[in-house]
Amino acid sequence: xSFSFNEQLVATAAYINGEWVTKPGTFxxxxxxxxxxxxxxxxxxxxxxxxxIEAAKQAFPAWAAxxxxxxxxxxxxxxxxxxEHQEELGKxxxxxxxxxxxxxxxxxxxxxxxIEWFAEEARRVYGDTIPAxxxxxxxxxxxxxxxxxxxxxxxxxxxxxxxRKAAAALAAGCTFVVRPATETPLSALxxxxxxxxxxxxxxxxxxxxxxxxxxxxKVLTQHPDxxxxxxxxxxxxxKLLTKQCADSVKRVSMELGGxxxxxxxDDADLDAxxxxxxxxxxxxxxxxxxxxxxxxxxxSVYDKFLAIYTDKVANLKMGDGMAEGTDIGPMIHExxxxxxxxxxxxxxxxxxxxxxxxTPAGDDNIYPPxxxxxxxxxxxxxxxxxxxxxxxxxxxxxxxxAIAMANDTxxxxxxxxxxxxxxxxxxxxxxxxxxMVGINEGLISDTAAPFxxxxxxxxxxxGSHYGLSDYTNIKYLCMGGIGQ
Length: 484
Ligand code: SIN
Known about the structure:
There is one protein chain. With about 475 residues, the chain is of the alpha/beta class. It has 2 domains: about 5-255 and about 455-475, Aldehyde Dehydrogenase, Chain A, domain 1, CATH 3.40.605.10; about 260-410 and about 415-445, Aldehyde Dehydrogenase, Chain A, domain 2 (3-Layer(aba) Sandwich), CATH 3.40.309. It is built from 15 helices and 20 strands. It has helices at about 45-65, 70-85, 85-95, 100-120, 160-170, 185-200, 215-220, 235-245, 270-280, 300-315, 335-350, 380-385, 400-405, 420-430, 465-470, and strands at about 15, 20, 25-30, 35-40, 130, 140-145, 150, 175-180, 205, 230, 250-255, 260-265, 290-300, 355, 370-375, 390-395, 415-420, 435-440, 460, 470-480. A 7-stranded mixed beta sheet has the order 14-15-16-13-12-17-18, with helices on both faces. A 6-stranded mixed beta sheet has the order 9-8-7-10-11-19, with helices on both faces. Helix 3 packs across helix 4 (about 100-120). The longest helix has 21 residues, at about 100-120. It is globular. It starts with 13 loop residues before the first strand and ends in a 5-residue tail after the last strand. The structure holds succinic acid. Succinic acid binds near residues 156, 157 and 288.
């Protein structure tokens, strides 16, 4: 390993049944900024995924039967260790993922907050009693863990997307197997280091890194001992994995792509809207599912808003995520940069104006924060998930047109709007066809809130008390023969 670090947090073997499993074959992890080699990680195959599922199956009965307060204590111990190492975990995350260190350290805190939250929720998996139609009957509802849960997680949040799923699963009494993204396995394995140290029993939390996405995906979605599969990633891959789960009718949670509108109405506080937009658009260099994709601005304030916003964007500092003051780090690979640039070129060819940026600087995978004016619905930036630091500005005439434009997409994850008119706030909130709406707010992700989408952005909710019920089965007990 070519960097100095707290070696105790760096694991490169798979974590199966509480053991570190070293494989003869490995895949390389590199720094997205400069391609520098960071580590070689054990390359798991389909048999390893099956072993991890078997371990999770064996561990399930005892973990599910453990009193909730004991599971809760173990999750809290895991949380405390993550917080103790927050800075070091943040550095590891920046090295393999590229995001600015302040964001990486923030992500570790965000991920840990799900473990803390679900440690508390573990003790509140309440059932129900329902008045029965006959005097000699009673109707009781209990909730039970679904069983073995498998998951595939993305590179854009290498820690938090695992923590958000695993914490809910473990709190409910399920056991868990994750295949992390090949770009960012070290953050996942560091979570396993700390889970082991926290005393989470063998087989309850397993990590199977591997480059064979299709092979591992097949086992994780089709194995008969898996009860539920949870995925965060693109809509295209999510559809494929959902189909694979269908044969054995597994429960699925799909947190997929977005095409978030950000609407600025003429009665908005324009400066606050520009600040909220920067937060929503440029987090992780635009590489999040909830990042703003289309900025819809009312004609009468369009020029003024564009000037305020462009000034703020021009002040963002690009560079190495490890450097002090960096706002925009590298994109995950060269291809990601090329895709984003293709969208910008398409928009310009079709008549958009280049207001800022638009020219990739060098060979460091950093795409400059870019603002495009006069974007129209026929351009690819309007239709496709950009997943990069580009702000397409679109004009609209009135509220009705803004809502129609915002909903004109097959996606339905996050949406945002700024307005000071309380009646409009209600009307627009109810009319937007999205799972989440930020109202005068650009940062909506929170442990206590239900994260998830509608339409082709997925199914299921993560975080909040809804996030735990996704990992439980409802069982109805009909009790008869009760004498009077
Ligand atoms: C994502 O991009 O998939 C998750 C973003 C978040 O949790 O805020």
